[in-house]
Design goal:
Length: 315
């Protein structure tokens, strides 16, 4: 068995429907404002893969429809640093060193722009100030995400990662409300996060949000207009006007509630099993074994040193 590291869950999508919905501006600003229009695209995963890096080699490759057998899970983490063209992680060069410290980077990348940006996104102001300088010229987006609760979540991501970022969290639909430099994007995220209808994500427990979002998103085929209109109303209430692109990313074959309700396992329970990666939603990988379907948070499996085999499934 080779030593390898899974770097990313990769997918391709197809558009299943699209709707355009409008919300009026809040009463106070009605006379000088035209409200919010949301163009919601509902995408379904049509092909699922894993980005695999063999130990010692900086260049990863994609295995589509993967079968996975984990012989031994080493709890060492591999440095998460990588660099290359935006939006094409499979063309990136990945660090081959073992990570030190909680952030998941090796010594030489602990203060890289990528590491500082992540610390910034988690709320470290000093990291933000360094990241603003190092990431000048890169595009970031602020998004507003409806998870089916009474508030929306406001988040920040690299512009090209928006679809991947939405797919890795429980969501009904999410809209991009700003694209620009990191300093402006972070400033807007903080400002919106203080709004009474928004949260930066800490207020509501993930598990709770996951089930709520899963139940709600399952209605999207028949209720896309209502879902898009609700998102437009949230965005209008946050003080925006204009047209905004929004996305929902649906799993491939399974209902979101099936993925959320499947038995959650830890990495240790997966040793020696033959696993098929059969679906993905809200950052949860649905794995089929000979006996059952189980789910695992992708972060439990990614960036670890594994003694494992990953091969494409043969039909
Ligand atoms: Zn490194």
């Amino acid at each position: 068995m080779p030593l390898l590291t899974l770097r990313s869950v990769i997918f391709e999508t197809e558009k299943v429907l699209e709707t355009r919905q409008h919300a009026q501006p809040p009463l106070l600003v009605k006379d000088r404002d035209s409200g919010v229009e949301v163009l919601l695209k509902v995408l379904r995963i049509r092909r699922l893969g894993l980005l695999v890096q063999e130990a010692g080699s900086p260049r990863p490759y994609i295995v589509w429809d993967p079968l996975l057998r984990l012989h031994r899970i080493d709890y060492a983490r591999v440095c998460r640093y990588h660099t290359g063209p935006p939006g094409k992680p499979w063309e990136h060069t990945y660090c081959t060193h073992i990570a030190v410290g909680r952030e998941g980077y090796c010594r030489s990348h602990a203060n890289s722009a990528k590491a500082l940006y992540e610390k910034c996104a988690q709320g470290s102001e000093s990291a933000c100030n360094q990241a603003y300088e190092l990431l000048k010229g890169e595009e970031f987006s602020v998004y507003v995400l409806d998870y089916g609760g009474s508030k929306v979540k406001v988040g920040l991501t690299q512009e090209w990662r928006l679809i991947w970022r939405i797919a890795e969290q429980p969501h009904v639909a999410a809209a991009k409300v700003f694209t620009g430099g990191l300093r402006e994007a972070r400033g807007l995220e903080k400002k919106l996060g203080r709004h009474r209808i928004a949260t930066e994500g800490v207020a509501v427990r993930v598990k709770e949000r996951m089930l709520k979002a899963a139940r709600e998103v399952e209605r999207i085929n028949s209720e896309a207009n209502r879902i898009a209109k609700r998102l437009a109303s949230f965005i209008a209430a946050l003080g925006f006007s204009g047209t905004f692109e929004a996305y929902t990313i649906l799993p491939m074959n399974n209902r979101p509630t099936e993925i959320v309700k499947a038995r959650e396992v830890g990495v240790g329970e997966l040793e020696l099993e033959l696993l098929a990666l059969s679906d993905y939603w809200a950052g949860r990988m649905l794995l089929e074994t000979m006996k059952s379907k189980v789910t695992i948070d992708k972060n439990m499996l990614l960036h670890r040193l594994l003694d494992a085999m990953v091969s494409p499934r043969r039909e």
